[in-house]
Amino acid sequence: MAEQGTAWDRAVDDWLVSLAGLLTAPESVMWWPGLAVGLAGLGWFWRDRQSWGRAVDYWRELPVDAGCFLANSALPFLLAPWLFTLSLIGNRVGTALASAFSGAPQADQPGWALLLMAALAAFVAGDFALYWTHRMFHAVPILWRSHRLHHAPPVLTPLTAFRFWPWEQAVHLSGNMLGQGLGLGLVAGLAGAQVPALTVLGVNAFMLVWGLAFAHLRHSPVPLPFPRVVSGWLISPQMHQLHHSMADEHRDRNFGTALAIWDRMFGTYALPAKAERFRFGVGE
CA–CA separation, 215 vs 239, rounded Å? Predict the structure, then answer.
């Protein structure tokens, strides 16, 4: 019992430390390089600010967004043993599957190419899992009742990324960690060795790049599109804003978190026009 209390206290302490590093931690939506990129995007689209919504709506939604942020930013620390177990299970399954087909001999210390492949595999597999957990919360009526909280506000801010009931966020985190473990296991099995994902500042290298690629503007009033060829592979902020549109023609489109390839593969892809703007919310 005392050990459980110690683990709980440690998780809470780690969470509080993470809140103090909101501007300095690379995994934070408030990481200062990301904020700098966001401010640049904000300035670029400042003339379009009439379409960003009413100030009163931002103030009305702020308490809910802030409360969800505090609750859900704690979950990765409170659920750390569970998430680690899922990652380990995914890793073991991926290794077993790949080893059964490759028969690769034991590899030496993995080089940069293999580390990059492992980081990419974890990023892609985790994103694939998030596509399906997200789509599931739209497709199943009882789950939509929970996910509706995320789509309810008529305005979007970066904090909207945390606007979930904690139990739903736990499902998304679990799917992502299981997928990342599976991706790493597949690479490890093919290589014949344990291969850690390449990290920069303690964060998956591809997640770090994605964090700088306007990812924090997915939930914002800034209608930032990517070039058409890039939008075929990555979800732009404008594409995710279409996902939050209340228009019937936009319903159940662009479920992807980072990669657009899953929406293209499974028929949920929608590319908005460059000047297209949306009304957010769930309507009736």
Answer: 11
Q: 104 lies in which domain range?
A: 32-202
Q: Could you give the C-alpha distances from 59 to 90, 154, 157, in angstroms and in order?
A: 42, 12, 11
Cα separation values, 107 from 20, 114, 115, 180, 190, Å:
41, 11, 13, 21, 10
In a domain, 232, yes or no: no
CA 208 to chain CA centroid, nearest Å: 12
pTM, whole model, 2 decimals? 0.89
Residue 149 lies in a domain: yes
d(CA 129, CA 111): 27
Q: Which of 165, 158, 170 is nearest to 144 (CA)?
A: 165
Least confident of 74-78, 109-113, 140-144, 226-230: 109-113
| DSSP output for 37-61 | HHHHHHHHTGGGGGGG--HHHHHHH
Q: Which of 197, 192, 199, 210 is nearest to 122 (CA)?
A: 197
Cβ–Cβ under 8 Å, residues 219 and 280: no
Q: Does 97 reside within a domain?
A: yes
State the total domains in the chain.
Answer: 1
Helix ranges restricted to H, 79-233: 80-102, 112-139, 141-151, 166-191, 205-212, 228-231
Secondary structure class of 276 (helix, strand, coil): coil
The C-alpha angle 82, 83, 85, rounded to 5 degrees, equals 65
Mean pLDDT of 69-84: 91
Q: Is 58 inside any structural domain? A: yes
Question: 233 or 37: which carries more pLDDT confidence?
Answer: 233
